[in-house]
Write a structure and sequence with these properties.
Blueprint lengths: L1 E5 L6 E2 L7 E2 L4 E4 L3 H8 L5 E5 L28 H8 L2 E6 L1 E4 L7 E4 L6 E6 L3 E9 L10 E8 L5 E13 L13 E9 L7 E5 L14 E10 L18 E14 L7
Antiparallel strand pairs: 1-4, 1-5, 2-3, 6-16, 7-10, 8-9, 9-16, 10-15, 11-14, 11-16, 12-13, 12-15
């Protein structure tokens, strides 16, 4: 069964995942899927979807929607080289992890940001505050390098550097990998600079570039990370009170995630 998706409007429309590309005004494409499946993928949409006979060959189909086909991976060798390369070019994605304060170490401070009554966890400049994170990578991960990072917001009226030290380890279902004791984790160190003008601005701080272990490469791999702001390090110079709550807690944690390259459609159950 094939379906036709038509954009009847005077402006382009971007197709949501797992469909790919953009429909120009008046443009229509044909996809090899049922009408119900296409409508489910589009979600609430005023694009026009209609069933059409399955008469077009794969070579005639617009490459804007080829990512839609789960069975399409089996036909890639028959495609033109340039098109196959385009489909499998890496696409960078985010993995959002789980985080919690590590036990039996300095705890992050939970304070509101400015006068908003919206609270964040804050790293202090006068102690070691530790955060534990876990990231599980989806089935489109291409087994390449991982780039974990923090989204931070400085409440300090002064400029300075914040020092982050940490460790990471891998586990993966069915791989035989054992989560080691902390002494067996790999360490890293990152220094982030904050200017006076960046006060109350969200800033991305890269922690490391991590190459996965061979046994960790594949679906359902989990990256374990422990990261500490070392306020006792002489290189940590971002001091200054944020002006509310615990004044020494001047570096807020807005978000945390990992960048990774997606180079496949995923796995087929």
């Amino acid at each position: 069964m094939a379906c036709r998706i038509h954009n009847p409007y005077q402006s382009p429309v971007t197709l949501p995942f797992p469909l790919r590309g953009m429909l120009a005004p008046g443009q229509a494409i044909t996809v090899s899927a049922t009408k119900a499946a296409v409508e489910a993928a589009l979600g609430p949409s005023t694009l026009r979807v209609s069933e059409v006979p399955e008469t077009r060959s794969l070579g005639d189909v617009n490459d804007a929607y080829l990512g839609w086909l789960s069975e399409f991976e089996q036909t890639i060798p028959t495609l033109p080289t340039a098109l196959s390369r385009r489909i499998y070019d890496p696409r960078q994605r985010d993995s959002v992890g789980m985080a919690e304060q590590a036990a039996n170490v300095g705890g992050l401070t939970f304070d509101p940001i400015r006068d908003t009554n919206i609270s964040l966890y804050w790293f202090r400049y006068d102690q070691q505050d530790t955060l534990g994170m876990r990231y599980q990578f989806d089935h489109t991960w291409g087994n390449g390098d991982i780039k974990p990072h923090l989204h931070l917001m400085s409440g300090s009226p002064s400029a300075g550097d914040a020092v982050f030290v940490g460790e990471y380890a891998w586990t993966r279902i069915g791989s035989g990998l054992v989560l080691p004791a902390l002494t067996g984790w790999t360490s890293f160190r990152a220094v982030a600079s904050f200017s006076i003008a960046e006060r109350w601005q969200e800033k991305l701080v890269n922690l490391a570039t991590i190459t996965p272990l061979a046994l960790a490469q594949g679906a359902s791999a989990t990256l374990w990370i422990r990261v500490t702001r070392d306020g006792t390090d002489p290189a940590d110079t971002l001091e200054g009170a944020k002006g509310n709550g615990t004044n020494q807690a001047n570096l807020g944690l807005v978000f945390f995630d990992c960048h990774y390259d997606s180079t496949s459609f995923g796995t087929i159950p």
